[in-house]
Amino acid sequence: EVQLVESGGGLVQPGGSLRLSCAASGFTVSSNYMSWVRQAPGKGLEWVSVIYSGGSTYYADSVKGRFTISRDNSKNTLYLQMNSLRAEDTAVYYCARAGPGITGTHFDYWGQGTLVTVSS
Amino acid sequence: AIQMTQSPSSLSASVGDRVTITCRASQGIRNDLGWYQQKPGKAPKLLIYAASSLQSGVPSRFSGSGSGTDFTLTISSLQPEDFATYYCLQDYNYPQTFGQGTKVEIK
Lengths: 120, 107
Prior knowledge:
The complex is a heterodimer of chains A (120) and B (107).
Chain A: E1 3-7, E2 10-12, E3 18-25, E4 34-39, E5 45-51, E6 57-59, E7 67-72, E8 77-82, E9 91-98, E10 107-110, E11 114-118
Parallel strand pairs in A: 2-11
Antiparallel strand pairs in A: 1-3, 3-8, 4-5, 4-9, 5-6, 7-8, 9-10, 9-11
Chain B: E1 4-7, E2 10-13, E3 19-25, E4 33-38, E5 45-49, E6 53-54, E7 62-67, E8 70-75, E9 85-90, E10 97-98, E11 102-106
C-alpha cells in the first residue's frame, strides 16, 4: 500500500529554517516525480516544488532561492529544506507523488500534511 | 507563470443537480490540466488528468473536457459526498499553478 507521511512542521520565527520530511512506503521515491504543495490557512492550494526521478528540480517563484527539495534514496524519503522563512510561508505542507501511470504531472497519492507556522 | 482562473468561486446546488465548473488558462496549455477535490482537513484527491481522463476509482459522474485555454469539470448528478472544494491544476509548464478553487455547497 502506498503511504506518504510528513513530519517536521512546527512554529518557527521569521528568518528561521525548518526541514520537512516525507517518508514513503509502498513505492520507490527515486523512481517517481515527487512534489510539495502547500495551503495557507483558509486559502487555496499552491504548488511549491518538484524533483524528477533523474534529479532535476523546479520551484515556485515565491520560494526559489530559499527552499530546496531533495531525497534520500536509502531512506526512501523526500525533504523540503526551508530557509529564510516568512510569515507568508505559514501553511500546511503536503508531499505528493506524481502518478507513474498518469499522463503528465498529477498527484495520485498525498500525505496528510504538516503545519508550518512562521511567527514571532 | 500561467494563471488559472476558476469560475464560479462558489456555488450552491442540490443532490441530483448537474454541476459545471470552469477553468481558464492565461495561455494555451494543450490538454495539460487536472482536477482535484478537497474536503475540509483532508488532502486533495485527483479526479481527472489530461483534461478528460478519469483517475482510477473515481465515479463516472465526474467528467472533464476542454483544451487550449478553456476547461470544464462536470458532475452529472451531485451526490452528498461531492460537497467539497474543487481545484484545477495545469501541468503544461513550471511553476505548476492551481486555480483559486470552487466551493460546492448544499442548497
